[in-house]
Specification:
Order of helices and strands: EHEEHEHHEHHHHH
Structural class: alpha/beta
Strand content: 5-15%
Largest sheet: 5 strands, parallel
Helix content: 40-55%
Shape: globular
Radius of gyration: 17 Å
Number of helices: 9
Distance between the termini: 38 Å
Strand order of the largest sheet: 2-3-1-4-5
């Protein structure tokens, strides 16, 4: 079983990676996991935002993620502390949408961030079902995810990600929908809505 979590960055991919990881652990499946552009031999769970043809062709399951574009950018500025103006809004928007668009057509299951925030139990159940695990206790998975996340943020004094979760200490916030308003001004929000109207409308964000 080779599982890939791919697509849009800053859209819940690390949460999804860990949901799958916890499910595999609870099913006592031996596997290797990492952030890389190649699967390990045997069972593996890989997270990768770039596009790789070999990775695409060797994955049994491709899970992709999606989030409101403006929230992705808001998360980007919060997480990376990248100074405004280092790259243009167009460069950043194009970067995030590029990996959504190229992976979307290959997706076995699309994890929509907003749906997960609204009903995480339902989404965990759907993820488990895609992997043909129909007897998973979704609430236990979410409790374990919360526990591991809290343990990392309490104990990790560095900003590097912690194996095997791939969680950075500054990954974790309440993940509020619409928090981009704390990072983007009115002119920037208007520009994104006007220039990415087609994608935002197609995906029910406008």
């Amino acid at each position: 079983m080779k599982i890939l979590v791919a697509g849009m960055g800053r859209s819940g991919s690390t949460a999804l990676f860990n949901i799958i990881r916890i499910i595999l652990n609870k099913k006592n499946i031996n596997y290797k996991s990492n952030y890389t552009h190649r699967h390990e031999s045997g069972n593996s769970l890989i997270k990768y935002h770039g596009y790789d043809e070999v990775l695409k062709n060797t994955s049994d399951y491709i899970f992709t993620t999606k989030r409101e574009l403006k929230d992705c950018l808001g998360s980007h500025f919060r997480f990376t502390h990248e100074p405004k103006g280092k790259r243009t809004l167009k460069e950043l928007c194009d970067q995030y949408l590029h990996y959504h668009i190229i992976w979307e057509k290959h997706s076995t299951y699309e994890f929509v961030y907003e749906k997960y925030k609204k009903d995480p139990v339902k989404i965990v159940k759907e993820v488990a079902s895609v992997l043909h695990f129909n007897d998973v206790n979704e609430k236990e998975v979410l409790e374990e995810l919360e526990k591991q996340t809290k343990d990392i943020t309490k104990g990790n004094k560095e900003n590097g990600f912690q194996s095997p979760t791939l969680i950075f200490k500054n990954h974790v916030t309440n993940g509020e929908i619409g928090s981009y308003k704390n990072h983007l001004n009115e002119a920037e929000i208007k520009w994104i809505n006007e220039n990415y109207k087609d994608w935002l409308t197609k995906n029910n964000y406008l």
